[in-house]
Amino acid sequence: MIEPRLDETIFGDRPPPTTRAERRSREPRNRSGRTRLVVLLGVVLIVAALVFAVGALTPMFSSFFSRNDYAGPGTGTVEYTVEEGATGSQIAAGLAKLDVIKTQSSFIEAANGNPSASSSIQPGTYQLKKQMSASEALAILGDANARVSSGITIPEGKWASEIYATLAKSTGHKVADYEKAATTVTLPKGITAPDQAKYRLEGWLFPKTYNFSKQDSPKAQLQRMVDETTQELTDLKVPRAKWERTLTLASIVEGESSGKVDRGKVARVVENRLVDQTGLINGRLQMDSTIHYITHKRGNVETTDAERGQVDPYNTYLNAGLPPGPINNPGVAAIEAAVTPDQGTWLYFVTIDSNTGETLFASTFEEHQRNIQKWQNGK
Questions:
Q1: pLDDT per residue as tens digits for the range 234-291
Q2: 124, 149, 174 — which closes off a domain?
Q3: Are strands 152-153 and 147-149 parallel, antiparallel or unpaired?
Q4: 193 phi and psi, to 5 degrees?
Q5: Which of 202, 220, 235 is at the close of a domain?
Q6: Are 270 and 285 a contacting pair, CB within 8 Å?
Q7: How many of the other CB atoms lie within 10 Å of CB of 39?
Q8: Fewer Cβ within 10 Å of end Cβ, the chain: N or C?
Q9: Residues 6+ apart with CB under 8 A from 107
């Protein structure tokens, strides 16, 4: 009996391949083709799914964005005031509150898509419409010529009475409306106008350009100005206990200075005179600006003997020390000078050229007399 060979038991009646070429010829030939087919079918399915998804979601996205923004040019009219220093988010919030735009995000998206228009927005009051598209609202705000009002500018050193007249002329309210409103405006806690004050808010009406809307009442306008002064004092880190003194000193600096370069020196003269209790000064400031405040006259830097002799708590020729309160409404430069005066021993100064504002300072009366002579020679 013949035993079967081992190779026949394993492979049946065919002998196994003996060479690499024979083994390769016996392997399936369609494996790579099937793989490519499977990959291709997968790609086709993915593309089909994406096409379907885009088709299904496009109406949803379109509906979402349409819900975020108004489509039309708007109706009616509404005024919106862009405040100085306002951010894009603040503007968007204000517009949405007035229903000019539908959502804040629509305006921010429009601004991001049109940087030139958003960067050209200037403070002022603009006439818009309700329910406008965000892009159309942005286009109007980006056009400075579209402003119906570019703001009310309050110069430094004006009296409260002058500020009331300026506001009345620009807003249509009456001076009497502002005088009445001034009695109800809230001063910072702990601050009260002096009994001798001619105007309760004197010194607290901060000079700058304001963009008041027609909806702002006289009281709201004056309150805004007082709040601005409070903020400036806070930013300059002036102790609250010194706020009234600082504004009074700053108002004298504002009234006496011909230019920013002299403000620190004038502030030092005031401080030096306050501590000088002997000789010709004797603690008296002798500032003509305080006489101008009493007479309420502008345009003449000189004062007469009769004017300087008036009995009045604000007369610094007769009374030693600071006046009872501010004599005008100083700006930030004058307030800064009052907080940090220049260092020096000056007690006197005289402006020798009213056109250029050139001012000479002196530490002695003799030197001051020589400076006065220069002024007289130049008249």
A1: 999 999 999 999 999 999 999 998 767 799 999 999 999 999 866 677 889 999 999 9
A2: 149
A3: unpaired
A4: -70, 140
A5: 235
A6: yes
A7: 10
A8: N
A9: 88, 91, 92, 95, 96, 101, 134, 137, 138
